[in-house]
Specification:
Low-confidence stretches: none
Largest sheet: 10 strands, mixed
CATH superfamily of the largest domain: Aldolase class I
Number of helices: 10
CATH class of the largest domain: Alpha Beta
Helix content: 25-40%
Order of helices and strands: HHHEEEEEEHEHEHEHHEHEHE
Distance between the termini: 17 Å
Mean pLDDT: 93
Strand content: 15-25%
Number of strands: 12
CATH architecture of the largest domain: Alpha-Beta Barrel
Number of domains: 2
CATH topology of the largest domain: TIM Barrel
Bound molecules: iron/sulfur cluster
Shape: elongated
Length: 347
């Protein structure tokens, strides 16, 4: 619901303390409110039970807490759950809870829609509306975390920024959200268990290196041949594989971090041995881990699941070059929650 009152979650802890001081209250109220908002995920001032009734009323007269609301929820036969959220201004965005043995991964969105129009991706087909705020990213994570606890009695183990949108085109809020959830005044979630997955924007990757990030970087490569990659990822025309490689070398040199390559295997497009050779060559200058992911159909007949035998041959070839390769089966494909399938189809 739209409201004219300012969003209290735009205020830092220091700004909250200053607000209380200005209004004749003790500054430590700022810390209390901050923890209600970011540790407990309060949805209303009423819940803030260690504040007086008057203070709660005063806060609700001055501020709002516009949160993401669960619009719908779908559960896959494999236990994966897709949440569709509605923003305060009426947009839809999605997150996925992926259980795997004793691990629970949250896949979160960074934007409503996406500007980059990757041809294989359902999100790319819906118009870009806006970036999600730090608070809206936090809401997704907290929702998945609480559901994991409630439904599976498990703590959240990993977070991947791999839902709707290109996280590096929402650099400030994405980075701020990771810093926030890492804070002991919030969820205390280790950045080492967070992965940002990007289509590969060289300038922003260099910025991540300059900013000395402590979370992990995954790049959706999908082909190490420019012609194929541009067909799948049009922005590759502007930022080709060579410029991406230079940025990744810089990233590795400055952070010492290994890079994960996500490689969606799509039948007849990027699954040949020639593609595998190009990929092996591309991986020569920095340490990588390669995740081969079976493509999930999104209704476009041009893109189909790979032949299992070809997928295996591709994997064996890469392993023969001493590369670390995992084959990932996409989860939640029956509810359009798998890689490349998030599209806000629920209206
Ligand atoms: S793959 Fe990522 S960058 Fe490309 S259109 Fe989909 S969400 Fe956007």
């Amino acid at each position: 619901m739209e409201t004219n009152k300012p969003d209290i979650r735009q205020l830092t802890e220091e700004a909250l303390s200053a607000f209380f001081k200005e209004h004749g209250e003790q500054a430590f109220r700022g810390r209390q409110v901050y923890e209600w908002l970011w540790k407990k995920g309060s949805t209303s001032f009423e819940e803030m039970s260690n504040l007086s009734k008057e203070t709660r009323k005063f806060l609700s007269e001055n501020f709002s807490i516009p949160r993401l609301n669960i619009h719908s929820k779908q559960t896959s036969r494999d236990g994966t759950i897709k949440f569709t959220f509605k923003t305060h201004d009426g947009h839809l965005t999605e997150s996925v809870l992926i259980p795997s043995g004793s691990r629970i991964t949250a896949c979160v969105s960074s934007q409503v829609g996406c500007k980059l129009n990757c041809t294989f991706c359902a999100t790319g087909k819906i118009p870009f509306k806006r970036n999600l705020s730090q608070a809206e990213i936090f809401d997704q994570i907290l929702t998945v975390k609480n559901k994991a606890n409630k439904l599976y009695n498990l703590s959240l183990s990993n977070i991947v920024y791999m839902g709707m949108g290109e996280p590096l085109l929402n650099y400030g809020d994405v980075k701020a959200s990771i810093k926030l959830i890492a804070s002991e005044k919030s969820l205390g979630f280790s950045p080492r268990r967070v992965t940002l997955s990007t289509i590969g924007l060289p300038e922003k990757i260099k910025k991540l290196a300059d900013d000395q990030i402590t979370f992990n970087l995954a790049v959706s490569l999908h082909s190490a041949m420019d012609e194929t990659r541009t067909r799948l990822i049009p922005i590759n025309k502007q930022y080709n594989l060579e410029s991406l490689k230079k940025a990744l070398e810089y990233f590795n040199k400055n952070t010492g971090k290994r890079i994960t390559f996500e490689y969606l295997m799509i039948n007849g497009i990027n699954d040949s041995i020639a593609e595998a050779k190009a990929l092996a060559e591309y991986c020569k200058n920095f340490p990588v881990k390669i995740n081969l992911i079976e493509y999930n159909t999104t209704g476009d007949p041009a893109f189909q699941k790979p032949d299992p035998q070809k997928l295996n041959e591709f994997k064996v070839f890469l392993e023969s070059k001493n590369l670390v390769v995992n084959v990932r089966r996409s989860r939640g494909d029956d509810i359009d929650a798998a890689c490349g399938q998030l599209s806000g189809r629920i209206k």
